[in-house]
From TrEMBL:
<feature type="transmembrane region" description="Helical">
    <location>
        <begin position="43"/>
        <end position="60"/>
    </location>
</feature>
<feature type="transmembrane region" description="Helical">
    <location>
        <begin position="72"/>
        <end position="90"/>
    </location>
</feature>
<feature type="transmembrane region" description="Helical">
    <location>
        <begin position="342"/>
        <end position="362"/>
    </location>
</feature>
<feature type="transmembrane region" description="Helical">
    <location>
        <begin position="102"/>
        <end position="118"/>
    </location>
</feature>
<feature type="domain" description="O-antigen ligase-related">
    <location>
        <begin position="198"/>
        <end position="351"/>
    </location>
</feature>
<keyword id="KW-0472">Membrane</keyword>
<dbReference type="InterPro" id="IPR007016">
    <property type="entry name" value="O-antigen_ligase-rel_domated"/>
</dbReference>
<dbReference type="Pfam" id="PF04932">
    <property type="entry name" value="Wzy_C"/>
</dbReference>
<feature type="transmembrane region" description="Helical">
    <location>
        <begin position="399"/>
        <end position="416"/>
    </location>
</feature>
<keyword id="KW-1133">Transmembrane helix</keyword>
<keyword id="KW-0812">Transmembrane</keyword>
<dbReference type="GO" id="GO:0016874">
    <property type="term" value="F:ligase activity"/>
</dbReference>
<dbReference type="InterPro" id="IPR051533">
    <property type="entry name" value="WaaL-like"/>
</dbReference>
<feature type="transmembrane region" description="Helical">
    <location>
        <begin position="235"/>
        <end position="254"/>
    </location>
</feature>
<feature type="transmembrane region" description="Helical">
    <location>
        <begin position="18"/>
        <end position="37"/>
    </location>
</feature>
<keyword id="KW-0436">Ligase</keyword>
<protein>
    <submittedName>
        <fullName>O-antigen ligase</fullName>
    </submittedName>
</protein>
Amino acid sequence: MYPELEVWPVFESRLRVFVSWVTIAAMGSYLVFYVLTAWAYDMGPAILLLMALVALIFGWSSLRTRVDRESWLLIATLFGYFLLQALLLMMHGEGLSEFDLSTRYLGASLVLMFLLMVPVRANTFFFAVGLGGALTGGFALYRWGLGGAARLQSFDNPIHYGNGALALSCLSLAGLAWASRQRYRFLWNVLFLCGLAGGLVASFLSGTRSGWVAIPLIVPVILFAYRDRILDKKWLIPIILAALGLLVAVMVSVDVVRERTIIAGQQVEGYFEEGVNHTSVGLRLDMYKAGLAAFSENPLIGIGPSGIETKVDAMAGSGEVHQNVARYRHLHNQYIDNMARYGLVGLVSYLALLLVPFFLFLKKARHGSPAVRAVGLAGALFLMLHGAVNLTQSMLERNIGVMMFLFVVVFVWGTLKAEERADEGAPDAHSV
């Protein structure tokens, strides 16, 4: 009787499809070009944040039905880190520019809410991860074939390139677990093996030692997640051990890996026995010394970013640490960095930022659904890697490091919840 009223459902349906495809493009571009181009880690999240702001304005009522307690806990962790860091910066009297990185945590929490409203499934996520790892490895081999720099990198320094590549490798490894239950598992396995190998190759050729520490920790996480399947198929145990042994053999055979491992040992010995502090390791150890000295001045809330700069300059001037330490903007250890800047409050907040999502993902890595289980493993492996890397890096003190950390966590959790709803037969189970 009123045909014009039938137009809105059609428009709404097409709008949903459009929003879904834009979401896929934004997430996919981020993961595929994760460490290859400068625009990837900003462009995709920016598009998603813009859509999130619009969606939350018009769809707040529907959001409450899509966000469960676990998701609220993760959102509260991200939002809480933003609030706490902003409060501490105000207490230290820092300028507005110091608040810039903190806003990323607020943006990530909003994007996570949006992804719970517009879910993206595991096939999309893992395809982008595998392709990203394969392209990263191809780029590394291409640059290595051309010769030139001893340590490979893309648009940024070798540290972000190597650790980002290793992250793609870990996510591709989880993709192999997901592919085992898929229809075209042979093709999926080929893609993820290329992603896994590509990420490892790029990491090794970058010479970035910080991520290599995390490699042995992968096995316990996998054993925890899949111990029932491994025990049921005992022939998997020698295969896992052989694969680990092969990986170690490959690492030792790569000149960059072998040389930088030997150099690191020599530099540690030189620092403690002869006081040699001008080396890469020596400078880091002096940074830790300065950071702990700053922490001791105000153990509760630290001395703030400006306070650290003043403290490091003073210690460098007096010869307590090498003068080159004053050239760096952070302390190359996120734990000590947070302690120096924000005291015990900062350390606890950073541990919460790592451990809350880690245990949420680890719990899902034991889920009954194979897809949820694989995505949970992906999140747990990524956070384990990040926690290990930040023993010798301060990844969250630069925009690229914050963006490369936050939005992987957000994308993995959004994908996990999409699979969980699909397993429960929820109305949005058909989402792409």
